[in-house]
Amino acid sequence: MYDYSQQIDAFHSDRVVLPKKLSANLTAHRTANEDRLIKRLPELKDGIRVGRSSFRSQGSFAMKTIIQTKFADEEYDIDDGLVLWRSDLEDQNGADMTPAEAKGIVCKALKDSRFNRQPQTRTNCVRVFYAEEDDEKHHVDFPVYRKWAEQEGEDVTTYRQLAGQSEWVDSDPTRVNVWFEEQVRALNSASDGAGTQLRRCLRLLKRFCRSRLSWDMPNGMKLTMLTVECFASRERIDIAFRDLLEGLFERLGSNLVVENLADNACPRAKLTRTATDSNMVDLRDRVGEALGKLEVLDDDGCDRSGARTAWDWVFKTDGFFLGFDDDGDDARDDNGGKSDAVDKGIAISTPTRPVNPEGGGRYG
After folding, report:
1. Over the chain, what is the mean pLDDT?
2. Does the domain spanning 18-173 belong to CATH 2.60.120.10?
3. Which of 48, 207, 263, 343 is the most exposed place for a label (fewest CB within 10 A)?
4. CB atoms < 10 A from the CB of 38, how many?
5. Which tens digit of pLDDT belongs to each residue from 193-219?
6. Dist. CA 19–CA 16, nearest whole Å
7. Digit-coded pLDDT (tens) for 324-336
8. pTM metric for this prediction
């Protein structure tokens, strides 16, 4: 397979990973809102207990799989769960607050005259909006949880529920994050860097899925589950990502349902609504299309230009690969794109690709 790993590494670092300055700014905004809640919630309700430990960072920002936005109408989504004691979420008569009441008091505490657009309650969170026309366009979501402990024999069990649309729903604010970090650590323990490569491949898959505004693609939660399910570490990032696409195509060809792998229940909760969700069908078809474009990498005569065209279709880099190749040393292509491992006779296996029964090449 033609070696285009150097270019993909550079693209991942420059156009996919969140820049450190932007990440720091987003973190600062999240912290500023935590400070508002720590200060103002006790002012709005006597006796409420809230501190820095009451917050549970969630989602792709916490898992370090958030990626740069590509389109002007995209926003960065920062999730920061607020966990309060159930006894603190009672009204003056000692009755439990409804989810709407709990979110309402949090929303009131977050309001600030400096916001152009005031915070709003949403189905499962309170949302704080930030600048809408710059590189830091984003919102911070605060899902609101209540917790309580019950004695069961000699054991104490802590329960947590999310303030949903109309009722309190059993939910653990950190379960997915903890589960994902366990996957990364296990892979890194088994093979140095394998877990890190998993995270990089997930970011690249998200970038592929967001490469066209017209595509209807699954959300990050579903892509995370699918990546963990189908990923296998490889010597090079271009091979690892292509193999991930291979695994996805085969998996989605037989089953479009995605389960929450972090769920310990049996059966696990399903993230898809039906067995044929339209965004899952589109993902399968687009992955197949991408694999068809990448077939040129296996041709003996494949050169840097051909590899660039194929990978640029996958990621739609808006000229990044062309600029990288033009700035690089032509000696990079002296080996015909083959890696040192190939030159030294080290075998790098590539799985056999499935045949598309509908025709149109291997993938259509």
Report:
1. 89
2. no
3. 343
4. 15
5. 999 999 999 999 999 999 999 999 999
6. 9
7. 998 765 444 444 4
8. 0.85
Report the Cα 276 to chain-centroid distance in Å: 22
Structure-token pair, residue 348: 């790098």
Predicted local confidence at residue 136, as pLDDT: 66
Distance CA 292, CA 216 (A): 20
Contact residues for 260 (Cβ-Cβ < 8 A; gap 6+): 176, 221, 225, 268, 269, 270, 271
Q: Please tell me the CATH code under which domain 177-343 is placed.
A: 1.10.1410.40
Name the pairing type of β-strands 76-85 and 55-58. antiparallel
Nearest to 222 by CA among 270, 162, 290: 270
Tokens of residue 48, six digits: 């409420």
Q: Domain boundaries in the chain?
A: 18-173, 177-343
CA 145 to chain centre: 22
Helices 194-209 and 278-294: crossing angle, nearest 10°? 110
